[in-house]
Design brief:
Semialdehyde_DH_NAD-bd; oxidoreductase; 7-stranded mixed β-sheet; amino-acid biosynthesis; 12 helices; alpha/beta; 13 strands; binds N-acetyl-L-glutamyl 5-phosphate; 6-stranded parallel β-sheet; Rossmann fold; globular; NADP+ binding; binds NADPH dihydro-nicotinamide-adenine-dinucleotide phosphate; Dihydrodipicolinate Reductase, domain 2
């Protein structure tokens, strides 16, 4: 099956190509670029010389529909919302990595993304692609809103405990850190070498576009309107996200019991690894892989639990989860093309 990739020279696209290139049922089809159409792909990414040698194409809906079976959009928010309706009209299935189809409320989208939302018709059709939690709806979807990188790590870390009666729902704090590839390939002051090297920055306090996305998922999964305090930080590394999550417990429970609870919740989910009591995951332990690793610790003095959830932002946080969703949509083993050992060191 051929996969078209839009936003061809960005980091999400290049990661999709890496994964599709070794997928048993998918192959790289059209690679579409707004800025580099006509150039050879390996001019943008010389590390793929003699591996992906094909011209970057302009966005031509008919050609994409004729030559491909599925489309991955690795385009920014505000761009995907223009392209997806055109692609869907041809009957193609779309998996969108941007935030354009994730929020059910148009008002929330406008308020947090500061942009005009897409047509509600498409929001209604979009299925939120958190693979471990919504496999049944993903199976029948025509449009997947692939989750944001921070929301993937945060919600996978929180959902099992929110399903119990032991979580104080008003006490959730998510302290999140990302490597700079999370900001994409485009140049910006925040990720400029001299600005981020040997530096640690908090950003978008109380204003991050992932706040309503996290709250939407947690509200759905807990059955109660849920708010969170969510703070993002940029750290001087290339890949990786760590969410350190704190919440108060309403009952006494040991670390061992909570680890058991998470193990039970994720027992059939190959990409979530719950760490044994006493071991705490680090970003490097999931680097280049589709794993989300979760570590847990109950502080019996304060009756708070600390949850550490780590992913590679470009894999489980973007392209890897998009492939996992394609696997579920097309009825393949969800691990197809994703049997990647983390790269260490
Ligand atoms: N980086 C990450 O860790 C994650 C990213 N995402 C989301 O995935 C999407 C892609 O992100 P990422 O690859 O990192 O970003 P990049 O900035 O690296 O790439 C986005 C690409 O989209 C294309 N593009 C940019 N502006 C326009 C435009 N106006 N019209 C058409 N195409 C345009 C460009 O490629 P070209 O000129 O070749 O078309 C650009 O390289 C974004 O929506 C992002 O929010 C989601 C989760 C994690
Ligand atoms: C490090 C960094 O800058 N990360 C980005 C994540 C962007 C992203 O992937 O978000 P959407 O897909 O929701 O647009 C940020 O914090 O905005």
């Amino acid at each position: 099956m051929k996969a078209a990739i839009i936003g061809g020279t960005g980091y999400g696209a290049i990661e999709l190509i890496r994964l599709i290139n070794q997928h048993p049922y998918l192959e790289v089809g059209s690679v579409v670029s707004n800025s580099q159409a006509g150039n050879n792909f390996s001019e943008s990414y010389p590390h793929l010389t003699q591996i992906i040698e094909q011209p970057l194409e302009t966005f031509d809906v008919e050609a994409i529909a004729k030559n491909n079976d599925v489309v991955f959009l690795a385009t920014p928010s505000g761009v995907s919302s223009n392209l997806v309706p055109q692609l869907m009209e041809t009957g193609m299935k779309c998996i969108d990595l941007s935030g354009d189809f994730r929020l059910r409320s148009l008002e929330q989208y406008e308020a947090w993304y500061k942009r005009t939302p897409t047509d509600y018709e498409y929001i209604k059709q979009a299925v939120y692609g958190l693979s471990e939690i919504y496999p049944e709806t993903i199976k029948t979807a025509s449009l997947i809103a692939n989750p944001g990188c921070y929301p993937t790590a945060a919600t996978l870390g929180l959902i099992p405990i929110l399903k119990t009666a032991i979580a104080d729902m008003e006490s959730i704090i998510i302290d999140a850190k990302s490597g700079v590839s999370g900001a994409g390939r485009g140049l910006s002051l925040i990720s400029h070498y001299a600005e981020i090297n040997e530096n640690l920055k908090a950003y978008k306090l109380g204003a991050h576009q992932h706040i309503p996305e996290i709250e939407q998922v947690l509200s759905d999964e807990s059955g109660n309107p849920t708010t969170v305090t969510f703070t993002t930080h940029l750290v001087p590394m290339t890949r990786g996200i760590m969410c350190t999550i704190y919440l108060k417990l309403t009952e006494t429970i040991s670390t061992k019991e909570i680890v058991n609870l998470y193990n039970e919740f994720y027992k059939d989910k190959p990409f979530v690894r719950v760490r044994p009591e006493g071991t705490i995951p680090a970003t490097k332990e999931v680097l280049g892989s589709n794993y989300c690793d979760i570590g847990l610790h109950v502080d019996e003095r304060t009756n708070r639990v600390t949850i550490i959830s780590v992913i590679d932002n470009l894999v489980k946080g973007a392209a890897g989860q998009a492939i996992q969703n394609a696997n579920i949509m097309f009825g393949w083993d969800e691990r197809s093309g994703l049997n990647l050992l983390p790269m260490y060191p």
